[in-house]
Design goal:
Strand order of the largest sheet: 2-1-3-14-6
CATH superfamily of the largest domain: Periplasmic binding protein-like II
CATH class of the largest domain: Alpha Beta
Oligomer: single chain
Strand content: 5-15%
CATH architecture of the largest domain: 3-Layer(aba) Sandwich
Largest sheet: 5 strands, mixed
Structural class: alpha/beta
Radius of gyration: 24 Å
Number of strands: 17
Number of helices: 20
Length: 518
């Protein structure tokens, strides 16, 4: 999943980062012990001494947060055996990870590999500051498996000023989120699964009027979290499934899309009519899920990965409860669609402060050797997984115990094979796989609208401005839906939005788009 960057923190760190590069550039900086203990998990720090064997040095890797010690989880031992390298793993915090990464990068901490959530603005800033190693010559010399595993399209999308500074871990599925609805409530009010936005509104009205949940005013027809004003499925019904969408051959951000007013008007009607949770503006993610899982909401916009926990909680609150995903709703103009994921989930790079850049690439390459990568991803056939009708299915509980966190150890993936390996994870829970399968395999391809910008090359204005623009548009949309702002002020806000970087971003985006659109 994509994670936002704290742009203020990034700006504040730029000067410190630049000043540290002279010290980092030699790769021999020893002033890193105290900053590591302050900034990242120190678990397994003793592992830094000594090599796994021969003349191979011990490597240091900084990775994303997980709830298990990287150094003792079984995948670490497997990779040590397969690659011959001992690796000390530290991890970023769960919250405000980008701020912590900025501090560690600026301090000159001598990590050999850093893996973070994909954030193109953060990555491109590091690259332009000179904080990262150009990987192309290293891959040419030491990376045959990397070349085989990672597509040229992915490589090109990560180039900054013609140079490659990161190895991507690609997103493995297209659709993550839609409207989950109580089908037993539909039965109680005598209605079918809605297929259009009008039908969906009518269903919510029936939920409100007929109280199928039995909690009176405590029930809400539709709940959502407050930082999701562009609600998946609904926003696609107005022709705006992605952040930027094709309007007459040009990519246009939602706030400037002609359909934006219609979407806001529809959502405002839901809110004013009590069909959208009146508390959605202040709802946290957990708050919205609790309302649905406690049986007090008829529908929620939620990711399929959250369904097992929601299902377990809801079964306790109401053992007769049933639910299913709503298909792609058609809007007033007959449009429908979901944003189809593309691009990257993680990026792995080698800081200039690394003491062992060549060995870091050798380790990554060894981890991507096909047999090693498969064993890392899903384990050993007959022990961790079995093949049923051509599909990989986990053997529980050992798969969960020994491979559930394997994706966190990857620095790149076998892009051709991993999507099939990865689905073993989803099959750990039948109810989760059913939801995943519906959104990703059973929905027609025509409603999976690829986010074309996800694989666009580095564009400086877009990378610089996109996070701020998304925040501006999101906050404004919430205010419009909740009635705190009038749609009469849209034109003035659009002018402010354009001046904040949209115009500069749009110029370079559409210059690129003209070269790739069919």
């Amino acid at each position: 999943m994509l994670k936002g960057t704290n742009r203020l923190a990034l700006a504040a760190m730029s000067a410190l980062l630049a000043s540290s590069l002279a010290a980092c550039g030699s790769g021999g900086n020893d002033n890193h012990a105290s900053s590591a203990s302050a900034g990242a998990s120190a678990s397994g720090s003793a592992a830094a001494s000594g090599a796994a064997g021969g003349d191979k040095p011990a490597l240091k890797r900084l990775d994303v947060w997980q709830d298990k010690d990287y150094n003792t989880y079984p995948v670490a031992k497997l990779l040590e055996e397969k690659t011959g390298y001992k690796v000390q793993y530290d991890m970023l915090p769960q919250d405000k990870w980008a701020e912590k990464l900025n501090l560690l990068m600026a301090s000159g901490e001598a990590y050999d590999i850093v893996t973070s959530y994909s954030d193109m603005a953060l990555y491109s800033d590091y690259a332009q500051q000179g904080a990262l190693v150009d990987l192309t010559p290293l891959i040419d010399q030491y990376g045959p498996n990397i070349k085989e595993a990672i597509s040229q399209q992915s490589i090109d999308a990560l180039k900054v000023n013609g140079k490659l500074y990161a190895i991507p871990t690609s997103i493995t599925y297209k659709i993550g989120t839609s409207i989950l609805i109580r089908t037993d409530w539909l039965d109680k009010v005598g209605m079918q699964m809605p297929a259009t936005t009008d039908e969906f509104k009518a269903v919510l009205q029936a939920f409100k009027d007929k109280d199928p949940g039995g909690h009176g005013d405590q029930d809400v027809p539709l709940t959502a979290k407050g930082d999701m004003p562009m609600m998946d499925n609904l926003v696609g019904a107005f022709g705006m499934p992605n952040g930027w969408n094709d309007v007459d051959g040009q990519l246009v951000p939602r706030l400037l899309d002609p359909a934006y007013k219609d979407y806001v008007a529809y959502m405002s009607e839901l809110y004013k009519g009590g069909l959208l949770d009146k508390q959605f503006v202040v709802n946290k993610d957990a708050t919205a899920k609790e309302k649905f899982s406690s049986g007090k909401a008829g529908a929620i916009i939620v990711h399929w990965a959250d369904i097992p926990a929601i299902s377990d909680a809801l079964a306790k609150a109401d053992p007769s409860a049933k639910f299913a995903y709503v298909g792609a709703l058609k809007g007033p103009g007959g449009e429908a669609g979901f944003s189809a994921n593309a691009g990257f989930d993680r990026l792995s790079f080698i800081p200039k402060a690394s003491k062992h850049p060549e060995d870091a690439i050798k380790w990554i390459d060894a981890s991507l050797e096909p047999a090693t990568f498969k064993e890392m991803a899903i384990g050993v056939e007959g022990t961790h997984y079995k093949v049923v009708d051509g599909a990989y299915e986990p053997i529980l509980p050992i798969f969960t115990d020994e491979r559930n966190l394997a994706n966190n150890y990857m620095a790149g993936t076998n892009e051709a094979q991993y999507p099939q390996y990865w689905q073993a994870r989803v099959r750990k829970s039948p109810i989760m796989f059913e939801a995943f399968d519906y959104l990703n395999n059973k929905l027609p391809d025509s409603v999976k609208i690829t986010n074309v910008l996800a694989l666009a090359p580095y564009m400086p204005n877009y990378a610089k401005n996109n996070q701020q623009l998304e925040t501006m548009a999101g906050e404004y949309t919430v205010k419009l839906i909740a009635g705190a702002e009038s749609i009469d002020g849209l034109e003035a806000f659009q002018a402010k939005y354009k001046a904040a970087g949209e115009e500069a971003s749009a110029q370079e985006i559409n210059a690129w788009y003209a070269t790739v659109k069919k």
